[in-house]
Amino acid sequence: MLNKKSVDDINVKGKRVLVRCDFNVPLQDGKISDENRLVQALPTIKKLIKDSGKVILCSHLGKPKGEPKPELSLAPVAVRLAELLGQEVKFAKDDNVVGENAKAAVAAMKDGEVVLLENTRYRIEETKNGEAFSKDLASLCDIFVDDAFGTAHRAHCSNVGITQFVDTAVVGYLMQKEIEFLGNAVNNPKRPFVAILGGSKVSSKISVIENLLDKVDTLIIGGGMAYTFMKSLGEETGKSLLEPDYVEYAGKMLEKAEKNGVKLLIPIDTVVAPEYSNDVPFKTVGRGGIEADYMGLDIGPKTCELYTEAIKGAKTVVWNGPMGVFEMSNYAAGTIAVAKALSEIDATTIIGGGDSAAAVNILGFGDKMTHISTGGGASLEFLEGKELPGVAAANDK
Questions:
Q1: Residue 34 has pLDDT above 90, yes or no
Q2: Is 222 designated active site?
Q3: Distance between CA atoms of 270 and 321, rounded to whole angstroms?
Q4: pTM, to two decimals
Q5: Is 37 part of the annotated catalytic residue set?
Q6: Catalytic site residue 340?
């Protein structure tokens, strides 16, 4: 397993510690509407404060594309973090992130104090991993801590570039947890190991399906991608979401599953409607029964039973992607059934970020899951078996 040095392996007393967090939170009228990412960052920050480090935080927010956009400033994050930590978080307002303000704020720090830098993406070099900005960030600190799993699949200045110019680069608790749960689930799972893949496109999950078919005991397919699998079996899919270029690929995956002795489940009934709307009459049809002018929008009740049954005996489950259009109440039953099944089993249950994480939290099952990943794209690449640049850049034990 990936064995990276963490905040438990370093002495930060009196040192300047730059922490890359994931404070990419949704803002509405300058207010944070979901602070889950701030809360998840607290254990690492508190540990460094307790150990008398000088704690400098940085993160991106949205896509300012290399220019200062006031509505994407991290100023509101500093205010809320101060409340959550119960101590001042000094906001270093600099349009070029590492400017006079930031340098002065860091120079004046006492042990255990906290400074937050401005949005790292105000600098055009950030997403291009440009050397000048990496050096600027490194100049502020003695030690670098990466706790932003959500950006681990990208090589940017604030998570990868900086590590070339500091002597010590370690991971924070959140990053460590992600590596352990996702890494172990995929590479060393307790069996039976069940993976559930939903969401709209086969194309975005191709390598995940490939990789998981070599590792799981059961692979469950739902969401829009199911129709491409149905089509590969020669079934009618009506106006359902379909990726014609991937029909043949889906067929190959069904063959690979059979060859590997993996149970690959696709829906046996479907909730259909004449259009993509919650305000039209909908009905349930059996396998192959989707009419030409209807589209599938959720898995049906028999499929819910089939999938719940398949989940029941599992010891490890990874879930990425909803079973239907769960934001519309008429097509949420499939996603609810899967979330409920996961909440009731004695197993390691891992939710791979993005829409599935949102669904589990909205439906109130969040606290019943072993681990909810904070990074949708990063967790997918982990499930593909790829090395993530943000993880690779940290020092090995």
A1: no
A2: no
A3: 17
A4: 0.84
A5: yes
A6: no
